[in-house]
Amino acid sequence: MTRPNRLHPPLKTRFALLVACAAAAVLLAHCEGGGAPVFVQEPLPYPQDALAPYISAETMRLHHGIHYAGYVEKANRLAKGVRIAGSAPEDLIRAAAGEPGRRALFNNASQAWNHAFFFKCLKPKGGGAPEGPLAERINASFGSFARFKNAFLSAAEDHFGSGWVWLVQDGEKLVVMATADADTPIAHGLAPLLAVDIWEHAYYLDYQNRRADYVRSVLDNLVNWDFVAGQIQETQKSGGAP
Ligand SMILES: [Fe+2]
């Protein structure tokens, strides 16, 4: 007598239970932070000494290897157990923004995101004025590249304390803004195009208290305008902030 080639009902039920338990275990692990870390420390897109003499290798070693690495490590540690809708770093930042109980998470998550973005905004032999459609967008929003540059330098000089200076897309317009401490445009629904870190750790070894000289040096010699132009294209594809 041949046995039917199917699971016996009780065995089938137990198998279904096992599958359900396994799925629940995976979900629980994700919710409790047992999955992949939200933030990954991105490598520098150029050698550590490639931005010298405008930003020294020692500044980059400390900035990328110590400060940025610290933000990534702390953000991932603080994100464990946090339940949010979505799994992208930007989802986590938006979920933590303005929540008093998640201040440390917001600060470290934003700093991890801001630094990864900032390092990509730079390149050796960069800077100067952009060309093509990006130049047209800047002219349309500011009147000229010189006026954009003045607005960016003023924002850096006028900002009190640590923070960031940004070129962002706000609807159809490009706007210069500064954010304090770890704050980031993506927490405000704006799409970042260019960032310059104005925390003292970004420039003090090379420029001491001359923040304006550092920002001018970045604009003149290091901005990766191809990356900035790419961010506008990304914004057009996604329809807004990341
Ligand atoms: Fe920094």
Q: Any chance you could write out the topology, listing elements then pairs?
A:
Elements lengths: L8 H23 L25 H23 L9 H8 L6 H18 L11 H11 L2 H14 L4 E8 L2 E8 L10 E7 L6 H4 L3 H11 L3 H14 L4
Antiparallel strand pairs: 1-2, 1-3
Bound molecules: fe (ii) ion.
The site of fe (ii) ion has 7 residues, from helix 2.
Largest sheet: 3 strands, antiparallel
Identify the strand order in the major beta sheet.
2-1-3
CATH classification, class level of the largest domain: Alpha Beta
- Distance linking N and C termini: 64 Å
Average pLDDT level: 87
Number of helices: 9
Percent helix range: 40-55%
The assigned CATH architecture of the largest domain is 3-Layer(bab) Sandwich
| Uncertain ranges | 1-33
Radius of gyration: 23 Å
Query: How big a fraction of the residues is strand?
Result: 5-15%
Write down how many β-strands occur, each being a DSSP E stretch of 2 or more residues.
Answer: 3
The figure for the number of domains is: 2
Bound molecules: fe (ii) ion
Order of helices and strands: HHHHHHEEEHHH
- Based on Cα principal axes, name the global outline: globular
Output the structural class: mainly alpha
Assigned CATH superfamily of the largest domain: Iron/manganese superoxide dismutase, C-terminal domain
In the CATH hierarchy, the third-tier topology of the largest domain is known as minor pseudopilin epsh fold
